[in-house]
Amino acid sequence: MSEQSESIFSPRSSPRRATTSERAAAALLALGCLTLLSIAAWLSPNAEGHGTHTQLGMSECAWAEHFDAPCATCGMTTSFSHAAEGQWQASIMAQPFGTALAVLASVLFWGGLHVSMTGSRLGSAVAPALSSRALFFGGALFLIAWGYKWVTW
Question: How far is 146 from 127, CA to CA, in rounded Å?
């Protein structure tokens, strides 16, 4: 038997698994996202497309009151609340970036749960996506969504 054929049948080493601290971090990430989405599902989205955050005991937006214009995060809570209830069109109409963040929170919940339960290295595989270019793109989308709120205010 040749040396090459022996390596085909030799037992492979087991794949590297996430460390205990990585699994704990993934579990905390999943818990945080689940908490955020659960609170959003508990809230009743405000029909105006903003102001849902006041149900959490927070005050009205000082920016909106002072300038009669939307703040950068205007409509995010409302958008999350619509998304958590599966009302995607209403979520996008309230704040498109909020919809994207709600989807991201959902993906992070399931990914974090998967890593914490299985020890998968999924987090290490996805980490390179957090490049400065991706963050710049996200920031640009955030500003575009804020512009959308100005137009629809």
Answer: 27
Residue 125 in tokens: 């595989």
Q: Rounded distance, CA 68 to CA 143, Å?
A: 18
- The upper half-sphere exposure of residue 5, i.e. CA atoms within 13 Å in the direction of its Cβ, equals 2
* Segment 96-151, tens digit of pLDDT: 999 999 999 999 999 999 999 999 988 777 777 778 898 999 999 999 999 999 99
* Enclosing H/E stretch for 66: helix 62-67
How far apart CA 71 and CA 11 sit, in angstroms, is 59
- Contact status, residue 81 vs residue 75, Cβ threshold 8 Å: no
First to last CA, the chain: 76
At 43, list the tokens: 């809230």
CA nearest to 18, candidates 117, 130, 127, 128: 117
- Tell me which amino acid residue 13 is: S
DSSP 68: S
CB contact at 8 A, 81 and 98: no
Q: Calculate helix-pair angle for 20-42, 76-84, nearest 10 degrees.
A: 90
Q: Which residue ranges make up each domain of the chain?
A: 22-152
Answer for the pair 42, 85: CB distance below 8 angstroms, yes or no: no
